[in-house]
Write a structure and sequence with these properties.
Number of domains: 2
CATH superfamily of the largest domain: Glycogen Phosphorylase B
Mean pLDDT: 91
Strand content: 15-25%
Distance between the termini: 61 Å
Oligomer: single chain
Structural class: alpha/beta
CATH class of the largest domain: Alpha Beta
Shape: globular
Radius of gyration: 21 Å
Length: 365
């Protein structure tokens, strides 16, 4: 007979706090997938920015445990854009109070901050969870003061650090959880996005290469003209090449296409998509070429082959994880998270020929 206390640990209520951006959410998913596998009856909630919610749930409402919502039981929208743009407004105060009420209503046993920022730590504490856990060495050092339980992570990659935190949580709930290893993230399937993608790629038999030339800031962006040269080469070798357009008329995508045309490749296409559509499209790619940006990490989470072009950020910490990958980074590049507008000097030293050679190797051309 299972006691009430034992049942609580078999069915804990755990809040995950990792509000964004895309890559950060994706880097937290293997740990949560491992939690779900180890505790199939746990109630898992996730506090996240609304624009990234489709990484966890396809459509609304969606039933937990289905392909539309495979990992979690509940989403808690965190309106950080409003908080940042209007920090002292009544709307922001109402938003924060509403989030606090919603979180406390779920009566979480544990809040696990996988973001490591002061804001995410405050959200974890705002939940009223019986225990709040986070990295002893968080991204923003002051965040650790909000944690009742601090995990001294030892691994370099952020995915592995999140798994270490999840492992510590399971050691409190289930004996023998120290052997926990990351699982494959379970991304939801959106039926409408899948249909859109099927129409886009109807009767396509060529290898599909996806280029994502933009990133969070300019220092991480390899020159768009060079992406165009890569597109021209791969198209000449029998590939269909699509370029990620972050919006209709994206000027960076336009530069890539213009550069490819100058080299005789007239079939390179820009594709603007929603996040569910992007997920469906990347599921079908033969190769993704990108810098340290959301589409790269999304492709890696889907297990798709990638060529990753790194400059001011360290691939040992946040490079493609557990997927076929070739990472290119000049030895002279140094880690620098300042949001400089111009391409980092080391990233500029990565030549087109090196990227083409890596892509041809991955595609076995």
């Amino acid at each position: 007979m299972v006691s009430a206390g034992e049942q609580q640990w078999q069915q804990p209520r755990i809040l995950i706090v990792r509000v964004g951006a895309m890559g950060d959410v994706l880097h937290g998913m293997p740990a949560v997938a491992a939690l779900r596998q180890a505790l199939p009856h746990a109630f898992l909630g996730w506090a996240i920015e609304p624009r990234w919610s489709s990484l966890l749930q396809a459509g609304s409402p969606a039933r937990p445990g289905t392909p539309a919502m495979p990992l979690i039981n509940c989403l808690h929208p965190v309106e950080t854009r409003l908080w940042s743009s209007r920090p002292f407004s009544f709307a922001t105060v109402r938003s924060i109070l509403r989030l606090g009420r919603e979180l406390r209503q779920q009566r979480y046993d544990l809040a696990m901050d996988l973001q490591g920022s002061i804001r995410s730590a405050v959200i974890a504490r705002l939940s009223g969870a019986k225990a709040v856990m986070g990295n002893a060495f968080p991204r923003e050092n002051a965040a650790k003061h909000f944690y009742g339980l601090r995990v001294r992570t030892t691994r370099s990659h952020v995915v592995e650090q999140a798994v270490e935190i999840a492992s510590a949580a399971l050691q409190r709930c289930l004996p023998g959880a120290e052997a926990l290893t990351p699982g494959t993230p379970a991304l939801p399937r959106d039926t409408g996005a899948e249909a859109w993608c099927d129409a886009l790629l109807a009767a396509e038999s060529r290898p599909l290469v996806f280029l994502a030339p933009t990133a969070g800031w300019g220092a991480k962006e390899w020159p768009a003209e060079r992406y165009g040269a890569v597109a021209a080469n791969l198209q000449a070798n029998g590939c269909r090449v699509l370029v990620n357009a972050v919006s209709e008329g994206d000027p960076v995508a336009a530069v890539v296409i213009a550069a490819a045309k100058q080299l005789g490749a007239v079939g390179t296409e820009a594709v603007s998509s929603t996040l569910p559509q992007l997920t469906a499209l990347l599921r079908r790619t033969s190769l993704v070429v990108a810098g340290d940006t959301g589409p790269l990490h999304l492709a890696a989470a889907l297990g798709r082959p990638v060529i990753a072009l790194f400059g001011p950020t360290n691939p040992a910490r946040n490079g493609p994880y557990s997927t076929p990958a070739i990472v290119l980074r000049d030895p002279a590049s140094t880690t620098d998270h300042r949001r400089r507008p111009s391409t980092e000097a080391g990233l500029l030293r990565i030549p087109v020929e090196a990227v083409v050679a890596a892509a041809r190797k991955m595609l076995m051309l």
